[in-house]
Specification:
- The chain is mainly β.
- The protein is built from one helix and eight strands.
- Strands 1, 2, 3, 4, 5, 6, 7 and 8 form an eight-stranded mixed beta sheet that branches.
- A hairpin with a 2-residue loop joins β3 and β4.
- The longest helix is centred in the first third of the chain and has 14 residues.
- The termini are far apart.
Length: 131
């Protein structure tokens, strides 16, 4: 019986694979093929959260940014990321020209930020305005 318990423990320890956590800014080359989490360990994304407004005369562009933790992509993988998603409104003379009303689910959100380093982000906007 003792041999069976020892064998069971060995088999369980071999089959268990822990999720690896990587800080923001690590490259794809550092990540394993699956079962990882790119996490905001230093809370750098928190500085972006909130309402941001640009105004020039009668033109107003406002963005609401929110941090989402452990977002899952692609859906059938064990790959997780902390990321910033946003929604925005662009108006001229009080008339809304373009807006998003919700954050959406990644990768279908219309506004997202990609972390490069503490001073550099890429902004992805998937929307357009027409006349």
């Amino acid at each position: 019986m003792k041999k069976y318990i020892t064998l069971l423990i060995i088999l369980l320890s071999i089959s268990c694979k822990a999720q690896e956590i990587f800080p923001l800014g690590t490259t794809v080359l550092d990540w394993p093929n699956d079962n990882y989490y790119v996490k905001d360990l230093n809370f750098e994304l928190n500085e972006l959260e909130g309402l941001w407004i640009w105004q020039d005369g009668n033109e107003i562009f406002s963005i609401v940014l929110e941090k989402f933790e452990m977002t899952h992509y692609p859906d059938n993988s064990n790959e997780y990321y902390d990321r910033i998603l946003g929604k925005y409104t662009y108006s001229v003379n009080g008339t809304i020209i373009s807006e998003t009303t919700d954050f959406g689910q990644w990768p279908h959100s219309k506004l997202a930020f990609y972390y490069r380093n503490p001073n550099e982000y890429d902004l992805i906007c998937k929307d357009y305005a027409s006349d």
